[in-house]
Amino acid sequence: MKITQIKYWQVLIVFALTILLFSSGYAQREQWYGALTYSVSVPSGDTKDIIGDIGWWGMGLDYRYMVQKNLSVGLFFGWNTMYERVTGQTELNTDPPGTIYGTQDNTINSFPIMASAHYYFGERKQLRPYIGLMAGGSVMLQQKAIGIFVWDNDQWQWGIAPEAGVAIPVERDFGLLINGKYNMFFSGEDAIGNDINNSYWSINIGFVWEP
Fold first, then answer.
1. Backbone angles phi, psi at 154, to 5 degrees
2. How far apart are CA 157 and CA 140, in angstroms?
3. Most buried of 4, 63, 134, 173, CB within 10 angstroms?
4. Which helix (H) or strand (E) holds 134?
5. DSSP code of residue 54
6. Domains delineated in the chain
7. Which residues of the chain have pLDDT under 50?
8. Do 55 and 21 form a contact (C-beta atoms < 8 A)?
9. What is the model's pTM?
């Protein structure tokens, strides 16, 4: 699992550098901007039944194009990881069904890739609240380890993410971005094959170019 995380980190870093370079190139047009955020995830719903702890590792990457004065469309790439160690009983979705008891290490790595639309209040270069909606899905890397037994389930899950936030200008082409999202995924399975709908809150803070 650690090897997989490192590979995705490398991909996200490449995306970050690419977006920032393009944002700089288009800065004079005042149409594109990019954002890089640190992300904390709070499991909810079915996800919380598996992992109750807050995930302190994550990042987000936004690239938005202003189609109107107060409206943008764009792309979002992200990563959130959630982990918890618990001791208890797990019902196995096997044939025949089974039960296993022991200390469990539960891990979820979510890599959302979504199209976005955002509406902004106020004027550029001022404190600017906004609301938005993202739609697409996430690559979910899920693992459950109990002793010598390990279950992995890596799959694409479709979903949406309503968002609200604020852009705070600091200098001419630079500012702070604070937002919250509720990531909802419509269908999927957990690490051992049970049907679930993953969901989690993400709280994000970072930097924005051309806010």
1. -110, 120
2. 7
3. 134
4. strand 128-146
5. P
6. 2-209 (2.40.160.20)
7. 1-6, 23, 25-28, 211
8. no
9. 0.79
